[in-house]
Design a protein that fits this description.
Bound molecules: 2-phosphoglycolic acid
Order of helices and strands: EHEHEHEHHEHHEHHEHEH
Strand content: 5-15%
Largest sheet: 8 strands, parallel
Helix content: 40-55%
Radius of gyration: 17 Å
Shape: globular
């Protein structure tokens, strides 16, 4: 049985004060649930939120990582730095990193390897743009991303990988995929994992949906057999809304 996982991707939002306000309020709202919750704040707030997070039942992760060990990389953050402040979850290959910041599949694969080698958990994001979807090539596109990004990831390392399917056209647009369309891709991902690795890995790897998830639509995604949770952007910035999403996912999954 896969444990539900709900992630908050804050992107470049919040300040120190509003982050602390969020976590204090969120700690009061979050009921004990049979699910994992992770908040990915901007780098400057990770350390302080980590202090609060322990008591509020969430993990704190990083939105990005540099693939090099250390040295002359102005503006970058290494795995060792993240580990030294208690981070154990990292987003890799978000479409905003791929498209706005030019991260190639090769770079995404290196970052993924860096996270895994550091024994942190990577949330690998994949997903097609609107043109690819309209051409009916979404499955093929996602398959190619998986083939390239997981090429050198061993079966054993898959314990440290979560896959997030985030169709680009659904991110920040208010136009979520239908749960059926999302499920079609997620079940394909599971089938692909079974072919590349084995049935046990296909059955244990958590796969999330991302793209305009809200408290209103979360349960309909979580009701799908292959959707194990969500990666939430806009609707995760407010503690009430993010807590509702977690409760909605956990009750849809666990009854
Ligand atoms: P959204 O973002 O929920 O605002 O659509 C999701 C994401 O980019 O991870």
């Amino acid at each position: 049985m896969r444990r539900p996982l709900i992630c908050a991707n804050w992107k470049m939002n919040h300040t120190l004060d509003s982050s602390i306000e969020f976590i204090k309020r969120f700690a009061m709202l979050l009921k004990p649930v049979d699910a994992d919750a992770v908040i990915f704040p901007p780098f400057p707030f990770i350390y302080i939120l980590h202090e609060y997070a322990e008591s509020s039942g969430v993990y704190i992760g990083a939105q990005n990582i540099n693939e090099n060990e250390k040295g002359a990389h102005t503006g970058e953050v290494s795995a060792e730095m993240l580990k030294s402040i208690g981070v154990s979850w990292v987003l890799v290959g978000h479409s905003e990193r791929r498209n706005t910041y030019g991260e190639s599949d090769e770079l995404v694969s290196k970052k993924l390897k860096t996270v895994i080698d550091s024994k942190m958990i990577a949330i690998l994001c994949v997903g097609e743009n609107i043109e690819t979807r309209e051409e009916g090539k979404a499955v093929e596109f996602v398959k190619n991303q998986l083939e390239r990004n997981l090429e050198s990831v061993s079966p054993d390392d898959m314990k440290l990988v979560v896959i997030a399917y985030e169709p680009i056209w659904a991110i920040g647009t208010g136009r979520a995929a239908t749960p059926q369309d999302a499920e079609e891709i997620m079940s394909f991902i599971r089938k692909w994992l079974n072919e590349k690795y084995d049935n046990a890995i296909a059955e244990t790897t958590r796969i999330l949906y991302g793209g305009s998830v809200t408290p209103e639509n979360m349960a309909s995604f979580a009701a799908m057999p292959d959707i194990d949770g969500a990666l939430v952007g806009g609707a995760s910035l407010d503690p009430e809304s993010f807590a509702l999403i977690i409760h909605g996912a956990a009750s849809a999954k666990n009854g």
